[in-house]
Amino acid sequence: MTTAVIADLGRRAQSMLDALAALSDEDGRITRLYLSPAHRRAADLVARWMGAAGMAVSEDALGTVRGHLPPAVPGPLANRRYLVGSHIDTVVDAGRYDGTLGVVAAILAVEEIRARGLKLPFGLDVLAFGDEEGVRFPTTLASSSAVAGVFKQADLDGARDSAGVSLREALVGFGGDPDRVAAAAYAPESVLGYLEVHIEQGPVLEIEGRPLGVVTSIAGQSRYMVTVTGEAGHAGTVPMTMRRDALAASAEMMLAVEAVARAGRADQMVATVGRLSLDPGAVNVIPARVSFTVDLRAETDPPRAAAADAIKQRFREIAEARNVAFLMDRYHDTPTTPASPRIQAAFARAVEDLGLPVRRLTSGAGHDGHAMHALCDIGMLFVRCRAGISHNPNEFADATDMGLAVEALIRALTALADGQGEV
Ligand code: GLV
Ligand code: MN
Ligand code: MN
Fold first, then answer.
1. Which CATH superfamily, name and number, covers 3-218+336-422?
2. Is 32 helix (H, G, I), strand (E, B) or coil?
3. Which of 27, 90, 314, 393 pairs with 199 at a CA distance of 20 to 30 A?
């Protein structure tokens, strides 16, 4: 493989990523939340690219854009397919690589497979999911869950964004048909596996000077909505000892969350309070009610469960001492998800083929593979990014590394076709 081919793939990836980055709901920064106008435009652009790459394009009830490439040769796998993709939604003020790189890499891989006349014995579906970040609705992975057949129907009316719009209403506005959710699910027997290319979002590959990494597992995560209720009062007259201040109690709770995660660092535990709102929110009123999120992750499941118990126990103590009430509602919970040895082997083979060392690593970030694991084997290829920065506009991946990732994806699919990914 000449370096010119890799460079060309990298350039094409970068220009597609730049085109997607221009589609934002906010001026001057990239914000593309699930089912927003910018998501609509991104889905349309991705659909055009898929069509131009020779795929049959459709969009399912949850807004996942799908491009299908039929098998090129008859045989026992002709009725089955590999799924390849990632997500096109973003966090608020995002970078331009998280998720989008996996979609762009999959489309480029299909273009190349056709251009090179590679004859795969199975079908390929490229998937561009819409709800990986879980920023707009308290759902997270709704679109990949529908594809995997594990979407919770209750979320259609139960999940609402901060403006009160239900998931059902937003889907209708996007052009989806919420009554056709069941049809979005693949039959498990028709699917051979799910492959995803993604930036690492951490510093390991860069520190070790390796462009690509093979993912062994995706860390489990739990997300909670915590509501703390005290009592509003006059900031000038209620003595400090008589207050039921929901914000002061929440502040102590947030520090408890941080302390529990720090104590679990041997288990790669991390916990984040990323969103907070308070009521009534006036300079001269003691806060009556606070809601905040907790995102809790660890490399394996038992320490995460133990940390959740420890956090709840600390919340009870703080609430009692401060005479406030609290509710801790777990709205998302995904166990640590293993990558299949078979798909890991195919990616490892592809990386070696490119003359690169194989570095295996776990993913601390969440991915659509969490949901897809309910349907099929999953595997991921990580691409080195600068300084481990992600969920930040300074996110950066080198075009040559992205070209290598596209080439490795093509070779992994070829290895799976040859049975070389079998272990
Ligand atoms: C997704 O990016 C997540 O890990 O929160
Ligand atoms: Mn992502
Ligand atoms: Mn992300």
1. Zn peptidases (3.40.630.10)
2. coil
3. 27
